[in-house]
């Protein structure tokens, strides 16, 4: 094991910088991971909400434009294309053909749907029930675990706000016969105006969110590592030029002076602490020269008077 006292000044300083660097990497990595995860979730949430607003526009268009045009035909025949939920789901599948939205999934999770494909699962049922328990529910988001893996989801309540929805989902007796023939009479009836019957849910694999965060984290840490490596190099270069080299030169001069070469001079190249040290050594060297001269004169005086003996 290398003892710290045996390391050179530059090595000690480099070791200190490396330790600070490693501590900074760990601390910043933890902080950046949290921030970037939240940022990635916010980006996915923004994209999901845009999709959800688009689906709501499709639903509104189907309800206000398509259904009235086919009202006479709907009296005797059920057309799935006139159902807002059906239109929204089909349009969303077209969106998913775009690679940018291929990982997104859309579902109108309903407690009592006509089409059992829209039946809310246990997790979605809890979300819907929470919406129903609130006076003015908003959107919720988070992570959930499914057999297919972990998902990040965004959900909004589905509230019955138009009378036209009750033509198919009101009482069983008033529902189109073709609807009952297609989906049966057991589900999808008894809805009331202003009732929250389900939740619009858009989900995306959690790995997509985490992968975006990891890529940003690696890029940020990579830049941080490069910048700090350059900083260590420049600091060591500066330390070697302005501290280590002058100290080595002073050490060699001090060694020469200690062996009797009192004419060796400590070069002062700066006015900083290293320069002040060189100046102090020069004063010490001059004091030593003066002391040696006095000693030499004293010895010569003793020798001339005949009283000096070796």
UniProtKB/TrEMBL annotation:
**What is one Gene Ontology biological process annotated in the Swiss-Prot or TrEMBL record?**
phosphorelay signal transduction system
In this chain the HAMP domain maps to 241-293
Q: What class of enzyme is it?
A: transferase
Name the chemical reaction catalysed here. ATP + protein L-histidine = ADP + protein N-phospho-L-histidine
InterPro entries hit by this protein: HAMP_dom, TCS_sensor_his_kinase, Tll0287-like_dom
What SMART domains does UniProt report for this protein, alphabetically? HAMP
Q: SUPFAM superfamilies, alphabetically?
A: HAMP domain-like (SSF158472)
Keyword set, alphabetical order = Kinase, Membrane, Phosphoprotein, Transferase, Transmembrane, Transmembrane helix, Two-component regulatory system
Task: Give the superkingdom in one word.
Answer: Bacteria
Pfam families assigned to the protein according to its UniProt record, in alphabetical order: HAMP, Tll0287-like
Gene3D superfamilies hit by this protein? 6.10.340.10
The keyword Protease is assigned to this record: no
Transmembrane residue ranges = 217-239
One Gene Ontology term, aspect cellular component: membrane
For this chain, one GO molecular function annotation is:
protein histidine kinase activity
Task: Write down the EC number.
Answer: 2.7.13.3
Kindly give the PANTHER family that the UniProt entry links to this protein. SENSOR HISTIDINE KINASE TRCS, SENSOR HISTIDINE KINASE YKOH
Q: What is this protein called?
A: histidine kinase
């Amino acid at each position: 094991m290398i003892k710290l006292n045996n390391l050179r000044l530059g090595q000690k300083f480099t070791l200190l910088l490396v330790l600070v660097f490693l501590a900074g990497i760990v601390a910043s990595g933890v902080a950046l991971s949290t921030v970037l995860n939240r940022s990635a979730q916010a980006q996915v949430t923004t994209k999901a909400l845009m999709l959800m607003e688009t689906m709501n526009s499709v639903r509104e268009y189907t309800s206000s434009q398509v259904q009235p045009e086919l009202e006479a035909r709907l009296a005797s025949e059920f057309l799935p294309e006139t159902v807002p939920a059906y239109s929204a789901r089909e349009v969303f599948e077209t969106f998913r053909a775009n690679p940018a939205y291929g990982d997104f999934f859309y579902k109108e999770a309903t407690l009592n749907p006509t089409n059992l494909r829209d039946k809310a699962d246990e997790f979605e049922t809890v979300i819907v029930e929470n919406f129903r328990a609130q006076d003015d529910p908003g959107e919720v988001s988070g992570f959930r675990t499914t057999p297919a893996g972990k998902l990040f989801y965004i959900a909004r309540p589905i509230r019955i706000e138009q009378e036209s929805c009750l033509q198919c989902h009101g009482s069983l007796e008033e529902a189109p016969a073709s609807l009952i023939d297609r989906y049966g009479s057991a589900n999808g009836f008894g809805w009331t105006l202003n009732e929250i019957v389900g939740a619009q849910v858009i989900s995306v694999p959690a790995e997509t969110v985490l992968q975006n965060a990891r890529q940003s984290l690696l890029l940020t840490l990579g830049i941080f590592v490069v910048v700090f490596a350059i900083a260590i190099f420049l600091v060591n270069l500066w330390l070697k030029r302005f501290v280590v080299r002058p100290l080595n030169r002073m050490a060699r001069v001090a060694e020469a002076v200690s062996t009797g070469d009192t004419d060796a001079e400590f070069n002062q190249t700066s006015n900083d602490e290293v320069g002040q040290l060189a100046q102090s050594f020069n004063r010490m060297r001059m004091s030593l020269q003066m002391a040696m001269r006095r000693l030499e004169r004293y010895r010569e005086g003793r020798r001339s008077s005949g009283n000096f003996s070796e």
